[in-house]
Amino acid sequence: MDFFFVEYRDPIFGLIVFFGVLLLIAVLSYVWGIFSIKDEKHSIEKFVKKFENSSGLSEKHKKMLLELDVDTNSLSVLALTFAKSGDFDKAISVYLVAIDKSPSKKQREFLLVALGKIYLKAGFLKKASEVFLESLKLSPRNSEALRYLGVTYEKLRMYENSLETLDALNEQGADTKAEVAYIKALIITSQTSKFNEKAAQILSLSEDFPLLKRMVLEQFIRHNEPLDSLTMPRLDECIDIVFRLDNLLNLKNADFKELLGAKGLSNDEPKDFNLALLKAANDRSLGATLSFSYFCTECKTSYPLFFYRCPSCARLGSVKILTHVTKDTSEEDMPF
Q: What does pTM read for this prediction?
């Protein structure tokens, strides 16, 4: 019997078989690559058509951008220019053209995240979530896409989905304690349990996100609850609220005592420049008061209303309350 298998023990025959297998694998990989590229191209075309809209660029301009030798980086700059001027429809159209032209998976991933941000900023939340999910198909560990997807779910009030994205980020080593605490606080505020229970639960989360103490203060004021036993936030986190309150709060805290001094309710001399200026103006009966603006320390954007998450860069807890001494117009509206 061994006679029939001598040729199979020949080392040359073994090499031929080995290289034959390698060649077969190479051919199959090549064929698979061709089909996968075609499938990917079809998927991109389908995606672009799905998000095309008539209010963006005209077909003439889209065709021109597709045919011209313009790289995706230049198209990204053009899209950002449209976005900064508030023309989101044109920005979206340019990004879709760039995605259609992008030669590499990495570029498409970047462009999809950028497109998702535009949809998010424009308020098209459902489309934003779809775009971020499309980006995650290309790279499931894309932390930026995950973060913005979580923000989108938060705005859609899909809080459980948002927590899932934060869990994925946490597995990648990101610090998500503050984000998780904030989302859980939003879940608690949306529930129908007793007010005191909700307040206690939110306060317990404030260890991970201290600004939640302000959220509890807002809830107390909305529900006309007594503030005597409330654990107050730092003054720099709530000065725009407590400045409008008539009752004295947190008298043991030096910063709060300075605020009372600025309002003429105590003899404490404020050290803060604006509070000292307010006190000096009111001592001379000039009718001064404080007005407030809200500054994002991350993207350096100012807003007239308070925010927990920056409307521009979506950073949580980046707000800084700025005080301004102005003429008193007797407007006492709360900033929330």
A: 0.80
